[in-house]
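Complex record, four chains
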Amino acid sequence: MNIGQAATASGVTAKMIRYYESIGLIEPPIRTQAGYRVYTAEEIHELRFIKRARTLGFSIEEARELLALWRDKSRASADVKTFAMKHVRDLETKIDELQAMSRTLRHLAQTCHGDDRPECPILADLALPDARQPPAEKKRGKAKTHADCTCDEGDTFSRRH
Amino acid sequence: MNIGQAATASGVTAKMIRYYESIGLIEPPIRTQAGYRVYTAEEIHELRFIKRARTLGFSIEEARELLALWRDKSRASADVKTFAMKHVRDLETKIDELQAMSRTLRHLAQTCHGDDRPECPILADLALPDARQPPAEKKRGKAKTHADCTCDEGDTFSRRH
DNA sequence: GCTTGACCTTACCATTATGGGAAGCACCAT
DNA sequence: ATGGTGCTTCCCATAATGGTAAGGTCAAGC
């Protein structure tokens, strides 16, 4: 079983198999005299495990931990479950974020005529002076230190509400 | 308005502002004699536009197109709407993927006792021989070309369904 | 034996968007 | 003059993957 066949058998590309080896996710397999990597059924199984974990959205580092749990025959299933549920929460956080984006855009698009006139609430929203999104507070005093500034600054910046 | 202030005013870090300039997303601002970048209110506005687009999940390249539409006073709102809805579909595709992952993991976790015993359906699933996920078809014949292969290959590979 | 094509090897580069740091100059207040 | 903060550029790193190039290998056909 050399790498190309390991790839089709596991669903992990040859490129990625070598990569996983390079980062120590999998052990270096034995080699033929010519230097070809040779994989055992066991190793293919491991690759498939990794593939499945990736498909479920686990990062490579998370896959590494899952592999460790898998190999540890004395693990407690509670540990696996905790780990999995943590990931579920991560996924759902991400889902919520994406849904918020989608919802906002959908609303905006709904109010957009979508004809050949230029007026567009979508662009209008994007161009809002400040949609009070991020609570990005910085520790800075008056912030008025620039010297030979040539810019025209009206009250533009006090407008950030 | 030099870069630090432009950053706080727009919500885009100074690092990113320079980056956006380097990739031509924004025009290079004028400079003081000393080489300091100086931003106009207009440019801050533009940065805020970009920031908002990014917050809504548009990629930088998409933000570039939105900026172009914004600047083009003769755009048709239909174009903007189409663009936005395309993005909404992208978002929802992503959401669906994440939800599929979440659902699967949740189901698995549900059947996991989560005690101190090692038996765990989550790991068992990950270790499944082949969960017939990807339709990864490759154009290859018998695929049995290796020479001095030392691996034990039972029927392991014919097992992939 | 020699050629050919498919396969393997390593090494390097690119991607996306962002952060971090170093070295050095600029500005401003004391 | 000195110090602190901010600016400059340049380089590196991240996560996971794909691509390419240059070269060795293997099996098969002539």
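Note: Residues 131-161 of chain A have pLDDT under 50 and may be disordered.
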